[in-house]
Amino acid sequence: MYRKDYFIAALMLALIIFTSACQSGPAKFGTDPDTAGESFHAFYQKMGECDFDCYKSYCLTIGDMEALKADANAPNSIKGLVEGFLLRPEQWEANMKRDYDSLKKSGKKISDSWSSLSYDSFEFGKDPISQQLVGKLEMTSGEDKMRVQLMSIAIDGKYKLF
């Protein structure tokens, strides 16, 4: 059993329920699910230096979601999902800031240095139609474990947090 077991980004899943889309930045993760865990881990190791704009650059943007909605080849499951988020785009910035602050606060509970997080595992499922990747990233700092629930989608050949 884990001494500290944080489910940050249930936070990421809460983004799906409570928010619209990210406002800036290019995707930072590749699209190979077998190496996505290491990419996500590298992102979390950088959170110590990552300000809010940096954090947002890893997320799906409103523009990405509008493009998905307009894309005739996008799966209906993704179109329906993003359409719901686009109804209230003005909420995104405040929700992203809240989630960013929560993530930073939770990270301090496990380690003084984000860079000390070591990669343990990434268990995931990938929807073959929508290319959504949903997974659980596990990292360690000393004796403490950190679990992060992630949901991402491939945009222009790279995963973005969703």
Structure description:
- The two termini are 29 Å apart.
- The protein has helices spanning 10-18, 33-45, 52-56, 62-70, 76-86, 92-110, and strands at residues 5-8, 118-126, 133-141, 144-155, 158-161.
- It has six helices and five strands, in the order βααααααββββ.
- It has 162 residues and is α+β, with helices and mostly antiparallel strands.
- Helix 1 packs antiparallel against helix 6 (92-110) and helix 4 (62-70) crosses helix 5.
- Strands 1, 2, 3, 4 and 5 form a five-stranded mixed sheet that branches.
- Count of DSSP strands: 5
Spatial gap, N to C terminus: 29 Å
So how many helices?
6
* C-alpha geometry: globular
| Helix content bin | 40-55%
Q: Spans of 5+ residues with little confidence (pLDDT < 50)? A: 1-27
Layout of helices and strands, plus pairs?
Layout: E1 5-8, H1 10-18, H2 33-45, H3 52-56, H4 62-70, H5 76-86, H6 92-110, E2 118-126, E3 133-141, E4 144-155, E5 158-161
Parallel strand pairs: 1-4
Antiparallel strand pairs: 2-3, 3-4, 4-5
Helix pairs in contact: 1-6, 4-5
